[in-house]
Each structure stands twice: as C-alpha cells, then as structure tokens.
C-alpha cells in the first residue's frame, strides 16, 4: 500500500507501493511479517504497509466440516482447502472472491482509483436489480419485510425507533473440537442485550453472515470481517485480537438501523438450536429480496427527487469517500510510524538520558559527604525516572496509536466497499436517463418512464439514507476516536510530568553549605 | 572527541574520536562547522563533537595594539598574529600554549588518560616550588597576603567569611573602536556588588587575567575562558553567547574563597583608571608568590597529615575526576543528540500527525451538517495543536538541553585543568618521600626532613582545601543544573498537556444525533 524503505541489516525487505509480495510468516510479532518479493528476496515487512490481496489460505481448513453440509467428503487433513471454492453451499463466497481479484483498472468509473471489486452493478443487473428498475418484478412485499425511509431536515434517513436499539457483546472465546478431537476451532460467545441469551459462533459463521449481508443490502456498505489468518490461529493474543475486531464489527451492525433489525442478522444473534440454525440459514440464502430486489422492500417518501440535485450530492459524496480513503491511509501510516518511533527511537533517547544520569550518579557516589550523597541519590532517581519514561514510551502505543489505528482500519474497510454501493446507484440513474432518452425517441411512454423514475428515486432514497447514516456514524465515531486518543495522550504526558515532578522533589531536600 | 557518522548526502563528514580535522568555517550556524580531514575530504561536522586543539587564530588580531605596550610595532592589519608569541609582555601566554601542544602520552602519571598539558610540575619546580618544599625560600609573607586554611568536620577548607561574599554582573557589551576606527572591539561592562562601580573589560583583559590566575594559584584549577572565535566576532548572537559564558566564568571566580579576594582579581574588577590599571597589571605580573611560591602564602593547620591517608584521598579524587570527565562528555553528547532529535525527528513526528489531522478535517469539511462541521473544526484544531507541539519541540532545547550543556561545558573545562593541579601535589609528595629515604640513608637530618614534611603538608592542605571547595561547588551546581533542567522539562510537558486538553475540549460541545 505504501513505499517501505527497509533496513537490510535488520533483515527488513524494501518494497514500493503496488509491489506484490508473498507472505511467508505472519507470526513474527510486533507488527512484522516475513515476505518474499518477485526477485526471491526475503525479509521482514511492516504488516500495516501491505494488504492481503487474496489467498486460499485465508479460508479455515475446516470450512466445510460441520453444519452437516459436505461432511461426507470432509477435507480433514487437507490444508489450504483449494477444493472448496466450487462447493457452492455458500454460494456468494466464490464470486465475491473472484470479484476481489479483478484489477481496479478493469472497470473504472468516476469512483476512480479506489481499489475494490467493480462487479456490483453487473451483480445488481444479474440478481434482478435492473428488473426492479424496469418494473418487471412484483411488489407484494409483506409488511414485516418493509423498511421505511423518512425525510428529515438533513435529508432522507432510515427510520429507526430508539426503542429498537440494542447492543451485543462478543466474549469468552472457547476452543472447541469435534470429530474426536481431529478438528478444533474457536467459538465466540455472543450475548444480545434484548435477550441476554448467549449464542456460540465461529469465525466461519461470521463469514457466512458477512456474505449474506453483502448480498442482500445493495445500498449498504458492510465492513469487511477482520483479516483471516491461518498460522497461530489458537494463540491467545491472536484470539483476543480477532475477538476485539469481531466485537467492533458486531457493534457497527447492531447500530445500523436496517441491518440490526434484519431477519438474517437476528437469526445469527439469537438462534441456539442447531436444527433451527440450518433452517434459518437456508431461508436466508434463498431470501428473494437480495441485491437489486432489496429495493422492493423500501418504503421511500413519495416526493420525486431532482436528478441533478442527487447527482451533485453523489459526486460530492464520492469525492468525500475517495479523499477520506486517502486521509485514513495517511493517518494510519503516520500513526504506525509514530508508534514505531515511540517504541524505538523515543524510548532509546530517554533511556540514554537515564543511563547518563545514573552513570554520573555512580561517579558522584565516590564523594561520601552528606550533601553529595543526597545529590547523588537525587540524580540516580532522575536517571530512574528517565528510564521509566523510556519504558512508558514503549508501552504507550496500545493506549493511543493502536486503538486509533484499529478504528481507522475499520473505516478503511467500509470505505473500500463504498464504491460498489455507489456504482449500484450510478447504474440505476444511468438506466433511468436512458429511459428518458427512450421517451424522447418515442420508444417509451411517459407513464412507463415515470414509473422507472419513481423506482430510481427509491434507489436514490435508499442510497442517500445510507450516506446520511454513514455520516452520522462517522461524526460519532471520530468524535469518540479523537477523544480517546487525546485523553490517552494527555494521561501519558501527565504521567510523564508526574515522574519528573517526583524526580525534581528529590533535589529540594539537599542541604548545601552556604 | 566522539565518533560521528555523517550523512554524506547532507554534506556531513564522518570521523572517529581522536581524528585531527582542520576547521575551515565556523559560521555555518545551527551547531555545524565545516572541516577537512587528513584525506582532504571536506564536510560539515557537529561542533560539540570536536574540540579546538590549538590555533594561532585563537588570538585576537589586535592583541598587542593597546595598553601602550608594543604599540610602536603594532600589528594592525596582520591577521593571525603569528609574530606575537615571542613578545613576552604576557610572558605566561607562550609557555601555556606550548604546554597545550604537548602530547598527552609524552608524560603520563596516575592521572592517566585525561588530555591536558603535563608540564605543571616542571613549571612548579622552575618557578620555585621545589625550592619552597626544600626550604630554600624565605617566608616573610606579609599578613595581607596570607590565606588561611581551617580544619572542618569534612576536612581542610579555605577560610572565607560570609561577609566577604559578593557578586559581579557582566553586561552591556559595547562595540568600541580606536586608532580612528581602524580597530574595533567589544567591551563588556562589569559591576561588582561591593562597589557598584562599572568597569569596562575586553576579552583580551579576561584572557590576561586567566593567565595570571593560572600562573599564581598552583593548587586551584581555573576554568578556561569561553572559546575564542575570529569570524563573526561582532555579530549580536556571538557577543551575547560570549557574554553569557564570561558571566558564568566570573560567577565561578567571585564564588571562589581564594581567587575572589586576590589582589589581581580585585584589580581586574575595580580598576577604572588607565594609568593605575597598567601599574596593577605590572605588579601582578611581577607577583613573587606565583606558582610553587603560592604555597608560602598558605596558613595551614599545624597538625601533621598522614601521608598514606592523603595518598588514598588523592587516588580516589583522581578517579573521581577521570570518571566525571567521561560522564560529563557522555551526558553532553546525549543532550546534544537529544536536542537534535527534538528539533528534527521529534518535531517532524508531531507535525506529521498535525498535518494528517488537518487533511482529514479538509475532507470532513465537505459534509456541512451542523454536527459534522463541529467535528471538523475540532479535528482541525487538534491538527493545529500537534503542529504547535512540533514547534514546541523545536524551540525547547534552549530551555533545557542547552543550559545543561553550557554547565557541562564549563565543568569539562575545569576537569581538564585538574590533572595539572594534582600533578603539582604528586610531585611534592614524591619529593617528600625522597627526603624520607635520604634520611634513612643518613643524607638528611630528621629536623631537615620534618621541615620538608611540614611544607609538603602545606601543599596537601592547599590541595585538599581546593578539592573540598570543588566538591561543595559541584553539589551546589549540579543541584541547580538538575533543578533547572527538570523544571524546564516539566513546564514543557505541562504546556504540551495544556495544548492537548484545549484540543480535547473542542470535542465536548459536538452535538451528535442519538
């Protein structure tokens, strides 16, 4: 993602933004991975400078070994699971992965250089989105499936009564095994606040849910799951780290006014019975209001939208997403660099000062007169204080830079998925404009076109409601992120000041001859 | 003095501790000089990593052009003044400079590797020190010239009644000229607290005084004067910097119980009449109690000293001086490095954070809803705060590292002159031991030897009194240095905390939708 000038003496591997590296080891620790470049050179690379493009190893090797499906041809003992893509039980998984392998330059639009898959619009067309726009689908959506959009002073918004808000904890990861211990995995315990009943979910369940949400909610960017990782999967740190990101991921979904109340999400959060789980799973996979057809479920305001106004809003938002993508990458890189500096050079600088003071105190210790002894003790204590400040610098990033980087990482994921969502809208309005042209050419009637425009408005209303939701969430999130970051920085410098004040206090009592 | 790994791309010149470089330019600024190594390579070197060994250019080019002496063969217009060494009006200057060119390895003793001239003992012998020890000089010292040493719980000390303490300010540097403006120089105004009468002194007067003090007080290390510098001599910064160091130098002398009351020093501080100045100057230069004969003026306690006890004390103190010399160099190098880091990488790190926040705010500015605008303003303000913190890091060294480095520099000078003083004592006790041996061999009578031993004790008393004075001053000085350093550091981190608290405050008022 970024240029990295590695220190070859320290075994680091240099690379440029855009280089493709093969990751050899991910369990080095301290934010380093081992990688090999195209020239076959190996070395350490900072993990936040690279991004996993695609790998069959991303998939749990026990992917298809429970839930009954495919258990007759279990791949136990087949690491990597290359033979799994074609199984089709989690249908969307394969096309999604193929989508991510598309080159960004293969299909470009005004959404520009944001790297992502650009096949959502074709999916939209394939899955019946175009059919929705052209009125070729029925609209007998049951009331329970309907999603309301309301007009507010700040534009269209998802309707969500406060009474329906809830939270959900992700906790207590447990190592479980099956097939007489041949296979083991980690199960996380989820407890929604509305039921207080705990359900046990594995990473693959999250992954299935993610696929379902992405397929269904055509105008809602769903944050990617935390990165998959094969090596060291059961190590305590890794499990805790993954759990933290799963909690963040769940937090965002339970806050979402549409997703939080969707049947598939509630099924995921509440189902404890294995038979019912499979039923609900199959039902979700057969959901007829997925993709383009999702717009059938929207109850948008009747008022027609001004197409130029909508276009202008989309253009601005698109710019926002692209710029914010860059800002988030930049800030993340700066924070990564800052935390490396804190743990390395900053710590070293203060430790060097501490060591110099302590060495001076060792010499001063030769003079055993009372006032000299007091000074020696005070300087030695100052040396300790600077050494401790050095250690504070080393311990600080998990309190300030890392949490900020975690949140930025989450936003990076959301922003990456946004171009897909915007392309759905772009495709729909493009089609609507085609229809207006067709009307001018006498190929469509005004009544037909008005119906198309109304349906295009529904897509616009949904997209705008989600954009407004994104902005509201962004303001809340960044307010909190900045507050947490600044509070932690303030605490850090206050603690440092306290250490120095304590050190200074040791000099007050030194009795020097007049 | 230290290894320096320069960045050749930045035009820096690498060298090792001990390398001899030729300084080409001293007016580069920011602590850099331009130098050439033995291989003819040129580049920038950090001035605190090197020390001026010897140079004819150290001498003011108007050295002998006033005070009437030698004015008939004035060297106006002869820069460098290579022809000045033999003029002898400031007799001690020449041998002192020659002394500094002696290789440290030429004459080694237990004072080991401390680099300095080692010809003091021979000077001591030459100037009548050995004669003093052997009783070949009369002792009719007038009462007014007598210096008392008293025994205290912490050993022998110079007697100095509090009533005789005073201070002296060095201020108001004025550019003056003579010979119809052909020559100009800076005169500093000195005002002793006991008279409150201002006297005007040039650097060359300070240099003359320094030479007199060094020649006279055989057991007292006199701090070197601040470095001489030819280029940019009248620039405001240089003058202020030199004045600061002259003030430090005078401060140390007025605090010294012996020097502060010496005739030559008081003459320097008080004489306003040009004719009397020359008289006093000549009198000081002809002072018969200089060098070894200085010990004639000491009124030491009668009690005989235990030679082994004195030897042990000297050995320990010698170790102290050597270790402290290393500590001071080390701490100075660390502080130099720390201040460079503060002004460079530390500042850059905080500026990078500030810039990233401000760039994020620029993107967020696209969303003009009220709560977003409030967040944007807060983040922009946080960006400003980090930029200001970056600037604070850049401005900080003059408040903490530099004052500490100035004091360390002064101590480095004092410690460098100490081996000379200790060698005087070593020579005296060595001679006393020779006499004891001569007594055993029947070559000297017990009465003769006892007189020698009593006179050796006088030298020991003087040396011990000065050592105790040094240690008392050291405790006072380092207490103050550390307090100033820590207070400045505390203020710095408090100011930083305030900036961050102010930034944090901007988030509290952001109204986010529930």
TrEMBL record, chains A, B:
A 1,2-diacyl-sn-glycero-3-phospho-(1D-myo-inositol-4,5-bisphosphate) binds at residues 202, 204, 242. Residues 1-55 form the SH3 domain. Residues 60-106 are annotated as: Disordered. It is found in: Cytoplasmic vesicle membrane. Its main location: membrane. Keywords: Cytoplasmic vesicle, Membrane, SH3 domain. Gene3D superfamilies: Arfaptin homology (AH) domain/BAR domain, Phox-like domain, SH3 Domains. One of its GO terms (cellular component) is cytoplasmic vesicle membrane. Residues 60-69 have a biased composition (Acidic residues). Residues 166-276 form the PX domain. InterPro entries: AH/BAR_dom_sf (IPR027267), PX_dom (IPR001683), PX_dom_sf (IPR036871), SH3-like_dom_sf (IPR036028), SH3_domain (IPR001452), Snx9_fam (IPR014536), Sorting_nexin_WASP-bd-dom (IPR019497). Belongs to the sorting nexin family. This is Sorting nexin. It comes from Batillaria attramentaria.
């Amino acid at each position: 993602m970024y240029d990295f000038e590695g220190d070859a003496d320290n075994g680091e591997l240099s690379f440029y933004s855009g280089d493709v590296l093969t990751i050899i080891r991910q369990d080095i620790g301290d934010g380093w991975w081992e990688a090999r470049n195209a020239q076959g050179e190996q070395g350490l690379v900072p993990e936040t400078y690279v991004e996993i493009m695609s790998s069959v190893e991303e998939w749990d090797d026990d992917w298809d070994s429970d839930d009954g499906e495919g258990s007759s041809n279990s791949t136990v003992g087949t690491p990597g699971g290359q033979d799994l893509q074609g199984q089709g039980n989690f249908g969307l998984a394969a096309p999604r992965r193929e989508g991510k392998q598309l080159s960004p330059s293969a299909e470009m639009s005004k959404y520009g250089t944001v790297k992502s898959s650009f096949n959502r619009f074709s999916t939209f067309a394939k899955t019946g989105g175009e059919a929705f726009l052209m009125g070729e689908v029925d609209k007998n959506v049951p009331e329970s499936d309907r999603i309301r959009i309301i007009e507010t002073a700040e534009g269209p918004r998802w309707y969500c009564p406060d009474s329906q808000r809830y939270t959900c904890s992700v906790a207590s990861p447990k190592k479980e095994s099956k097939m007489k211990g041949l296979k083991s995995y980690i199960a996380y315990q989820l407890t929604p606040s509305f039921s207080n009943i705990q359900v046990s979910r594995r990473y693959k369940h999250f992954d299935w849910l993610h696929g379902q949400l992405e397929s269904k909610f055509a105008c809602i960017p769903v944050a990617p799951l935390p990165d998959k990782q094969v090596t060291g999967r059961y190590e305590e740190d890794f499990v805790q780290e993954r759990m933290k990101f799963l909690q963040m991921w769940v937090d965002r979904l339970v806050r979402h006014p549409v997703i939080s109340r969707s049947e598939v999400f509630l099924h995921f959060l509440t189902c404890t019975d294995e038979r019912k789980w499979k039923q609900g799973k199959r039902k979700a996979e057969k959901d007829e209001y997925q993709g383009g057809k999702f717009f059938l479920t929207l109850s948008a305001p009747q008022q027609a939208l001004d197409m130029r106004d909508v276009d202008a809003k989309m253009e601005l938002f698109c710019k926002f997403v692209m710029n914010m993508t860059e800002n988030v990458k930049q800030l993340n890189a700066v924070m990564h660099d800052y935390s490396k500096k804190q743990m390395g050079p900053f710590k070293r600088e203060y430790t060097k000062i501490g060591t110099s003071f302590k060495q001076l105190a060792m010499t001063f210790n030769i003079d055993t007169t009372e006032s000299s002894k007091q000074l020696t003790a005070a300087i030695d204590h100052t040396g300790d204080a600077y050494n401790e400040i050095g250690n504070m610098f080393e311990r600080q990033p998990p309190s300030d830079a890392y949490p900020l980087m975690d949140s930025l990482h989450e936003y990076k994921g959301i922003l990456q998925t946004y171009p897909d969502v915007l392309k759905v809208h772009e495709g729909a309005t493009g089609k609507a404009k085609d229809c207006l042209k067709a009307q001018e050419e006498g190929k469509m009637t005004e009544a037909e076109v008005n119906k198309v425009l109304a349906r295009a408005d529904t897509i616009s209303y949904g997209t705008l409601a989600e954009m407004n939701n994104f902005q509201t969430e962004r303001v809340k999130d960044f307010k909190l992120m900045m507050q947490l970051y600044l509070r932690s920085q303030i605490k850090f410098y206050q603690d440092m000041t306290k250490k120095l004040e304590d050190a200074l206090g040791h000099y007050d009592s030194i009795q020097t001859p007049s």
